[in-house]
Amino acid sequence: MKFGFCLPTFSFPDLDFETAGRVRQLATRAEALGYDALWVPEHLLTARGLYGTAWLSPLEAVSFAAGATSRIKLATGGTDNHIVLLDVSSFGLTGRQAESALLDAGVVTNRNSVPQDPNGAWYTSGIRLGTPALTTRGFGHDEFDRVAELVIDVLANTTPRLTKDGKQSKANYTLADGVAERTKAASAEMLDKYPLYPGLEL
């Protein structure tokens, strides 16, 4: 039987639940007690001001917990700023391949090393994503969920090519047919709803 612990993402006036340190503390205690999973509510609605006004997004809460525990890992170990570092090795890709495949699909990221990166600083095992370009347009939780779906779709449909000696390439890759086109179309649809300069005709 598996048990999970639900992390709070809101603050009470007398309990400092909103801080990263408090979330990490709760996560490590839950792990020490033998819980198999850490959960975060996707949506939590209360009357404004009823339980305080400080909130963590689900991504922030999970990433803080991931950085403090051994069973779940997000490469950043936290989101103290707008940047998230994702380890793409679970897709069988290098950061260079992931960066290039996403760019083919119209999604701009940067390859980035992860701690103790086996692929070094050139090929890397991670990609770095930042949010300001999208939050500036007005993207919220639902839109970022859709962005995550598009990123995962591209990475899941990207495969490394083989080198001349039959080994997996760290640079060359194949993106499945149609993936780039549908990702660009979905991105364009979202961006049309959130113009960079509303009311300005270019």
What is this structure, in a nutshell?
With 202 residues, the chain is an alpha+beta fold. It has two domains: 1-80, no CATH class; 81-194, Aspartate Aminotransferase, domain 1, CATH 3.90.1150.10.
Number of helices: 7
* Strand tally: 7
CATH class of the largest domain: Alpha Beta
Radius of gyration: 19 Å
Main sheet, how many strands, which sense, barrel? Answer: 3 strands, antiparallel
CATH architecture designation of the largest domain: Alpha-Beta Complex
CATH topology of the largest domain: Aspartate Aminotransferase, domain 1
| Whole-number count of domains | 2
Written overview of the protein:
This protein is 36% helix and 16% strand. With 202 residues, it is α+β, with helices and mostly antiparallel strands. The strands form three sheets. Strands 3-5-4 form a three-stranded antiparallel β-sheet. It has a two-stranded parallel sheet with strand order 1-2. The chain has a two-stranded antiparallel sheet with strand order 6-7. Helix 1 (20-32) crosses helix 2 (58-68) and helix 6 (141-156) runs antiparallel to helix 7. The radius of gyration is 19 Å and the shape is flat. The model is unreliable at 43-53 (pLDDT under 50).
Which short descriptors sum up this protein?
single chain, 7 strands, 3-stranded antiparallel β-sheet, 7 helices, 202 residues, Aspartate Aminotransferase, domain 1
